[in-house]
């Protein structure tokens, strides 16, 4: 969730705290570092390619924390743009190699092997910035004398000035090294608009910026744009997605003033509003006022869909990122809860609109995927193969557990739990346990999944229920045995 620069109420009023910002004169990006470090900013932007994590060859410098500050970048005293200053805090990752035995006993080392602590630790640190519709990456070279570096300890920071951004925009920052030795740092923040800053005299776009407020009226939400009748401005509603590009939803060029009504069913946590004067190089103001709105979260969950991607892929599709866990479950016909199967799909957070693979050997109509939302524990379930394989089958799911020395045990998944086969319980699986075991051994059951310790089997039960009305003498004998228990 973004870290707010100031508290934003649903009815956007004037912020009680107005920030006064430092002014930077000139268009050039710069970098400076704390004492003990030396740093250099590469000319121009670079490609944003984090790459895979690799093992550090020894002690290396890595970013440990990102810190931001708002400043103004000014071309003239009254012609400024909002800019984000970023401080990257660095520390030493990894350890020096232990001295060799001859060093411990005072034996002279090879003179060509210089003591590593007389050298420098160097790092190429990438700083990535994204604020719709802008994306940039810059590269900073940093070095510190190895004698000053201690594993795990901070060595200082490097400060970058600065990334220009629109008033009210949501900005995202990432930092990592090239090559990358650890997971990249990330930070998301919401910038204030003209109302929350002391910039009226410095940022020209604030002089004639359309003032936007959001208010609720029953099931409707009103967007009120307080501008003069002659002023022309653009208004865009878009879905600000964490994964993937921002998706425009509605756009129009309008003349003020305007009062636009949204139905409560149109609200989503990532629905944002952007407004700007229709003038050259005008600054855009963005607001995302529905992040904590319960109606928006309920709408998002209702709009989410589970989709099968043959042969074994699936996706959770939704307009916004969604905090949810997914698990595989077995849905028996006749209703009742879908019974969770920890293997083969362990509970884990799911990335929206990303293809995921189910490690199954065979598909089955009774296999379903459940999503559980962290917002009010709402649940979504989809039996992914219902369309292609037909209705739910009256099959029994057998869980095989494999032990040492080729020992194995079998139980059947029932509403009351997993019933061991050949037990004296009064459940359906216990009564049919002997025949289920024979079906499994004769290859009549379908293997759905396996690993080194477990396997799942689906055994058909549609031959005859409880062996009644079965012409086979074998089934009649089994039914006779069970009736005397």
UniProtKB/TrEMBL annotation:
Keyword annotations: Receptor, Signal
Organism: Leptonychotes weddellii
Signal peptide: 1-20
Domain Interleukin-17 receptor C/E N-terminal: 71-460
Name recorded for this polypeptide: Interleukin-17 receptor C isoform X4
Pfam families for this protein: IL17_R_N (PF15037)
Superkingdom of the source species: Eukaryota
Nucleotidyltransferase found in the keyword field: no
Gene Ontology MF terms in the entry: interleukin-17 receptor activity
